[in-house]
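The instructor's notes for this session suggest beginning with a concrete chain rather than abstract definitions. Hand out the sequence below and ask the class to guess, before any prediction is shown, which regions might be ordered.
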Amino acid sequence: MSSPRVDVELGARTHPGRVRPNNEDHFLAARFQRTMTTLLTNLPEGTVPAAHADTAYGYLVADGMGGRAAGEVASRTAIGALVDLALRTPDWIMSFDESRIGEVLERMKQRFERLSAVLADRALADPKLAGMGTTMTLVLSLGPDAVVTHIGDSRAYLGRGETLHRLTRDQTMAQSLADAGAITPEELKRHPLRHVLTGAISTKGGKSPIELQHVHLEDGDRVLLCSDGLTDMIDDAAIAEILRRPASPEEICGFLVDRALEAGGKDNVTVVLARYRVV
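After discussion, reveal the predicted structure:
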């Protein structure tokens, strides 16, 4: 049985917002490939393929914190280090079948765990960066399968049909209170501890919880990554309505950012959207 063909259309947008002087958010969308092209052969036609490629897509959002330029440095440095770790991996796993998915998730966990040490080393070289940190939410997809790796309070959503599913949990003190039943979901939206992180990639040491999951994608699915500059300004219902619009991912990212700015734009806002076509 042949594997399904998957086409991915991507869009992204970031804006510093209407209050902050600088943008501490960074995003990345990348394509990874393992390819073969037959150049010369006397083999009978069809013995080996003329060309073959396995293609994976990775995209992420990182929201830095630390004041002044430290947040920008944290998110930028963490993304660069993560890519370097991936590129230096000698054996890319380009198959997400059930026998390998656990190994893929474990590799992503180990890479995220190493990023705090990278930030700590950078802060040792420049004491002004002490205490900096960043959230990071990443999706890596190969064919119709995706893995989500998450730490902090940026978010990943799955839009399927008319429904919007939140794939990640905000790692904040307020969310912990809500999970324990100490505050209601409505109180959570305006609680003073809603921006106090319980998980982040930072220079402060210690292990933060890293969320991992495997998601099977269907034709028409949309995967949205965003910083809290979006979700603090507009609710999930508004996000779902915008995702359903008949527009390109790039246009939808623009609509989302514009809506956040119209609502006040109190923080940097970043969105990355992938639309999947599974044939």
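Then share the key points. The mean pLDDT is 94. The chain has one domain: 6-35+47-278.
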